[in-house]
Amino acid sequence: MKKTKEELRTVLVTDCGSTTTKALLFEKTEKGWRQTSRGEAPTTVEKPVADVTVGALNAFTEIQELTGRSILKDSTEEHPFVVTEGDPSSGIDLYLSTSSAGGGLQMMVSGVVRQMTTESAERAALGAGAIVLEAISADDEREEHERVERIRHLRPDIVLLTGGVDGGSEVHVVEAAETLLAAAPRPRFGDTLQLPVIYAGNAEAAEEVKEILSPIAQISVVENIRPTLERENLGPAREAIHEFFLTHVMSHSPGYDKLLSWTPLPVMPTPAAVGDMVSSFAKRRGLQVLCADIGGATTDVFSVFHNEEGAPIFNRTVSANLGMSYSIANVLIEAGSEAIARWLNFELEFSELRDRLRNKMIRPTSIPQTKEDLWLEQAVCREALRLSLVHHRELAVGLSGGQKQRGISDIFSQQSNRYELVNMMKLDLVIGSGGVLSHAPQRLEAAMMMLDGFGLQGVTEIAVDSIFMMPHLGVLASLHPEAAEEIFVHDCIVHIAHAIVPVYSLTRLKPGTPLARVSFGGKKAGEVLAGEVTHIPLEQGASGELVVTPSSSKIDVGAGRGKKVIKEVTLGLHGLLLDGRNRPHEWPESEQERLTMQQRVLQSVGIA
Amino acid sequence: MSRAFTPGLHVTASTLIRRRRELPLLGEVLVEMGDAVPVGVDVAKGELPGELYVLRLPERMGLEVFEVLGGLKKKAGERVNKGELLCEHAGLFGLLKTRYASPDTGVIEFITEKSGHVALRLPSKPISVDSFMGGCVVEIEEGKAVVLETEAAFVQGIFGVGGERAGVIRMLDIEPDKEITPSDLPEDISGSILVGGARPQLEALQLAAERGAVGCITGSIDDQVLAAYLGYDLGIALTGDEDVPLTLIMTEGFGNMRMSRRSLEVLSKHDEATAVMNGMTQVRAGAVRPEVIIPLESKSDHSIVDEQQLAKGLDIGSEVRLIRVPYFGQRAVITKLPKEEYQIETGAHTRVLHAKLESTGEEVIVPRANVELL
After folding, report:
1. Which of B23, B107, B324, B353 best probes binding to A when mutated, by most A CB atoms within 10 angstroms?
2. Local structure of A67: helix, strand or coil
3. What CATH number does the domain located at B52-121 have?
């Protein structure tokens, strides 16, 4: 299967997830690159099968049956595929894969200063597609024995050890190595394996760190993740993570040695592939993008926002305990019953709310049958999105230049060169993914969950990933970015609506007071009214100029107070959503008023 | 989503159970192939390497690194006793002595020249693994694990907390849907696994623990009671190592639900029999449900048939529990299994089944994902 990018016509891609292996067929049609078929099968990394390729072959078989296209050959000596030669309707040109089976890539990171090297290490690990089991810092206020105890109980796939700027003090990073040695955590796979450790700290301490850790670890030394206070260098650490992921994690997972031999490109961790897709799309289009994938156990948030110099900066965070089934009770604990219940348009006793969510936790595959039960899950989703965005904002920071380097004793208080990257007013596009958003019975329900959960502001386009295709497109993009983007735009993203949300500092505003005028294509489309949410259905796919004019100098619609926003847009399925509820959300004091408000909001957009 | 359904929990009067009992590291197996091993005796033992402590002497003694290195009384590889002098430095012409005694007994594993830190390895600790349910030794992995097999009555719950316990089944003399209160507990329940009722009160659980009960198997629990019992709120269903006085297993879930008739029947047949239980639950991939195992004297011919029946999945006539509102907790019998998808009230299209409710005889349509086989 050695074809050039230009020769490619048919690409088969799998994402081997924790529960499902999803295969997608991408083809170059007369209209361009499109996703043409999909097949799914349970993932088979666990006993009794314990071979990931069995699930993958089942998914391929489903595509074969659905399309009639001959994909699998009878003998599987080298690989199982029929390779397209003469007849373009038979076989495939290329096979690629991503993987998050077996819990994905799990890492521990260690640094010296929480808001410097540890945070950079977290960003590198998350950007490489890992879940961060623990982030240890010399300044995290734990006693040494507490850190050792915590690390001892972890089973990470890889440890990323950082600390110190190049030429700075070596003491703290050497101590961190000693702590790791004392804890000697066992790697998750292969009892006889040495723990994979990547050292990306002060270059001058590398030899000593290697010497200390050599009895327990296999060490890879890469460039410092934070060579100076104001510079972050995540690339080398990320590459080393992917290298270890392939050689230590993948190769020890059941059946992956075979799967790796079927594909010419490395198998990517699923979140890394999604991140690459989001990042490359945002950068090519010059957009500021937020993407959330809310699963049963975790919520991943990806973003590209521009820094102070205008450069696009990618970030990913994982809220490892916020999800819609396995982790639904964690959302309940973190948000509280009251915060979830405030989104409901019906009365529900807190004890009943808690019982329902806990029963969902222990029966994660059950689905809502009644409208009220659906709204309850969607209320949980709003809170999970809100909390995961809070988490994301903490880590998605920019680093200001010109920071003077100080002594190591001052470094512990060093945080003044960080600034928050996430600016909701500047956000162009929000993409939702995961069952509760992608498979919401009505697309407007998904839009409302993101509007409320993220507290969108200004003018933002809302979309969903139709069938969670982004991992497949991310790995395709590593070889053929143009094909990946074409499919992303045509088949992956479902554009739902543009949200228009003025933010104002006016007090005692009467409900219904006009906040902004909205026109599209030169015609008046509607008005944003205080306290109201209005749905303006417009022709899907229509392109034109969207103009939002605030009605007062105290109102910001995205361009600054009193300034109008003018944007060229193409409309999605449901036109415009005008939201006059201000940010942060303001709630009526009485329960009855809150209920009435929620009922009115959901009715006005036609989902209740 | 449309094809997913919860196949139900295993509840069998008699089946062949195998369990692997494994040391966390290499050690010694204490039994031989074919041995009949009673409940709860050690089958393997080993030594857990001692913990490593890094003693940061320059910081602790207020000295420079070279001063610490010059004053060390032990070398790498040497043994040191608790309280024994590890480092001594004489400052100010020998007038001021700074001493550091070893905080524990162990062996010096290494000394870092650059930092003056000393790593002390504590002595190893003995560990063992017991036979849990007991049975016949059918497999041995030398130095590592044994596999035991026994004929047993077997009941899985939906959710539990607490680890492995062995005790004697004690049926509570109350209706299956009655809340368990302190007055429902007999005095002599030391060593018992209590069975019955639903939604135990916190005071009842505390009193049961006080009286020495080791476990409780009941229909359901209130989530606030569980939080109070554990001392914290449980965020994910990943349990088994909670430090609780008695292990709890709920057969149905949260709220107010009576134990399924089948579970109750199996357990009540073994009142006063020795049993083992484990509250360990892991709902994610490779799901682990809590279990009760009651070893039996004689073998039955029906065990395999029972397992196969469960594996068949949904069928017309199957008895099911409905696990979502508006029919949450109700029992029903499947009357139809249409192949095509159906639009339910939420607007979603999904595969459904028709079922007749036991309580009212009403026939209802529910998503297949929302039933459990009984």
Report:
1. B324
2. helix
3. 2.40.50
Alpha carbon of residue B370 to chain centroid:
26
CATH code that applies to domain B319-373: 2.30.30
CA dihedral A479, A483, A485, A486 (to 10 degrees): 180
What SS3 string covers A318-368?
A: EECCCCCCCCHHHHHHHHCHHHHHCCCCCCCCHHHHHHHHHHHHHCCCCCC
Q: How many CA atoms lie within 13 A of A429 on its CB side?
A: 26
Here the tokens at position B37 are: 């091993």
Closest approach of B368 to chain A, Cα-based (Å): 9
AA letter at A161 = L
B296, B59 contact by CB (below 8 A): no
Q: Out of B117, B233, B325, whose CB is closest to A373?
A: B325
B112 and A212 in contact by Cβ < 8 A?
yes
Residue B293: count of CB within 10 angstroms of its CB: 23
CA distance A510 to A531: 8
Instruction: Quick: pLDDT tens for A451-466.
Output: 999 999 999 999 999 9
Region B158-289: CATH code: 3.50.30
B122: nearest CA partner in chain A: A182
Structure-token pair, residue A546:
């969207």
Query: What residues 205-244 of chain A have any CB closer than 8 A to a CB of chain B?
Result: 208, 212
**Is the ipTM reported for this complex over the cut 0.95?**
no
Confirm if B237 and B160 have CB atoms less than 8 A apart. no
Mean pLDDT of chain B: 90
Interatomic CA distance for residues B213 and A208, integer angstroms: 55
pLDDT of residue B205: 98
Query: Is the previous residue joined to B326 through a cis bond, with omega within 30 degrees of 0?
Result: yes
CA dihedral over A302, A305, A308, A310, signed as positive or negative? positive
Query: If you measure CA to CA, which chain B residue comes closest to A434?
Result: B1
DSSP, collapsed to helix, strand or coil, labels residue B94 as coil
Q: What are phi and psi of B289, to 5 degrees?
A: -110, 155
Instruction: Delimit the domains of chain B by residue range.
Output: 52-121, 158-289, 319-373
